[in-house]
């Protein structure tokens, strides 16, 4: 186990370095000026700003300095919100995005898994057809389309939830539902397929022959094996929920990481954009590592050598 995590940590460092380098090259060769605004700066002030952000130095020197700051965990100062470092801004936005992402992932996993198990156990019935039809619609519709319909329905036609903003838990319900809906649909279909495959195995027939109830067979014998494909999907699901939150946070005006990333791209705020990209890289790599490690817990036949 220690060797597995050590190997993954080395690959994490390599991945972060590659992503940082590619992002740095793209960001520093994109058109535009981070100091451009409606009111132009005098040349002396702009020269001081460029000196502060090392923009007056050669590209190789700037890259070396920025890479050294990354190693120290310092992503610099935002070029638009100059009173805050990138680390401070991320620490302010991260709890908001984490709450939104965890809520979306939690309801998507629970609802999707329950729907898939019920659909498989009632194969061919009206419940199966209805649940899989809803799952197909959920997969086909992007989350921003679902957001538009949800805002019209639950904020204007039936004024139950606020259409935008952030504050009380009521503001979390609608965006979490819209963000997690497509992934709940994917999980439902994956869980149904996995459950149908497991229910046809010999050991399930043996469990039924012993006189166990349908619920006991499903929950104790079938579900632990059928849930493995769902766990495999959680890594990409986390990636999708994180990147999907860029749109959802913008639609619902939620002051999270996604909203800040979109705004930093609009404002040409390179330090902020690069800090968020590095954060996303570390988070996604970590989640995929944890998902792979979970195989050894869910399936005793899988060893650490198999997932490394």
TrEMBL record:
The record's subcellular locations are: Cell membrane
Alphabetized Pfam families for the sequence: BPD_transp_1
Key word Hydrolase present in the record?
A: no
Query: Which InterPro entries is this protein grouped with?
Result: MetI-like (IPR000515), MetI-like_sf (IPR035906)
Keywords, ordered alphabetically: Cell membrane, Membrane, Transmembrane, Transmembrane helix, Transport
Chief localization: membrane
List the GO terms this entry assigns under cellular component, sorted alphabetically.
plasma membrane
Protein's membrane topology: Multi-pass membrane protein
Q: Domain named ABC transmembrane type-1: which ranges? A: 94-291
SUPFAM superfamilies documented for this protein: MetI-like
Q: Give one GO biological process term.
A: transmembrane transport
Q: Which residues cross the membrane?
A: 9-27, 98-119, 131-158, 170-191, 212-231, 237-262, 274-298
Q: Which CDD domains match?
A: TM_PBP2 (cd06261)
Question: Which PANTHER family did the record assign?
Answer: INNER MEMBRANE ABC TRANSPORTER (PTHR30465), OLIGOPEPTIDE TRANSPORT SYSTEM PERMEASE PROTEIN OPPB (PTHR30465:SF74)
Family as reported in the entry's similarity comment: Belongs to the binding-protein-dependent transport system permease family.
In Swiss-Prot or TrEMBL terms, this protein is called ABC transporter permease
> From which source organism is this entry?
Aeoliella straminimaris
